[in-house]
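Below: protein 1.
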Amino acid sequence: MNNLISALIGALIAIMIMLNGTLSNALGNYTATIIIHTIGLCAITLVFLVSKQKFIINKGTPFYLYSAGAIGIFTVLFNNLTFSSLGISLTLALGLLGQTITSIIIDHFGLLGMQVMKYQKHKLIGLVFIILGIVVMAVF
């Protein structure tokens, strides 16, 4: 089930980049980013109301975890900037490469409280294929 949900997330991200980038081209990057996140806030508020969940902030939560909101803003902003010149496919592929490399580093060193999962050299084959795919997409 989680594999199916992850595949759905990938499809939604591709659609999101296209919609956000097109909106950004029409309205400007900063205006589009504000609108995108305002609508996102309204959507999650509706989810809270429908599911009858309570909004809880745990006082013991490390402050740096809240930085994910700012990272989300910059992710949308930078995707919108690159969308018009790179297109959806290359923007998404380069983003996934960045995610993959960053997640390997986080796992390998156990950063941000994650369990240490040492990187194994045989996994480098997959990383090389990702990079070759990006080169093919960028050149041809």
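Below: protein 2.
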Amino acid sequence: MRIAMTGTHRVGKSTLMEELAERLTEYRAVDEPYHLLEEEGYEFASPPSLEDFIEQLRRSMELLADEEGASNVLFDRCPLDFIGYLLTHEESDAFDLEEWLAPVRSSVQTLDLVVFVPIEDRDRIRIPAHEDPELRARVDEKLAWMLLDDPFELGVEVLSVHGPMTARVTQVLERLGRGK
């Protein structure tokens, strides 16, 4: 299966992916576009600009395309993450969603499962003071809307996970028919 972890920043996506990779040894883990672009020399603005999120969106779509024939892949983030950030960015009016919607839909439909890690009422990760909690909440709401309401008719299976990390891992493993 091709599985992507998605959610706003600091909800535990990467940690969940690492935990799953330890248990699903036949799976290969693909790091998130931000880290890959950084390793390749891309310099992000602080805070990230609209162009930075578009570049991450492009890279995310490339990663899914590069792995198109591969099975048993875990992706840290997918194109929808970056659509969420782009739609909530202060310069979102300059982002043409219609231009990106068809290629994003095609890209996301190559996934067998999207694991959505939402912000929970009792936040599980301590947020540093420099983080913007309002942006984080807006992205979370936008992702929940896109994934759970499916207004763009993505047609991708979504598993929303909740609880401590052990519960989240169990929820994914059970969805994969692996039990605990």
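The mean pLDDT is 93.
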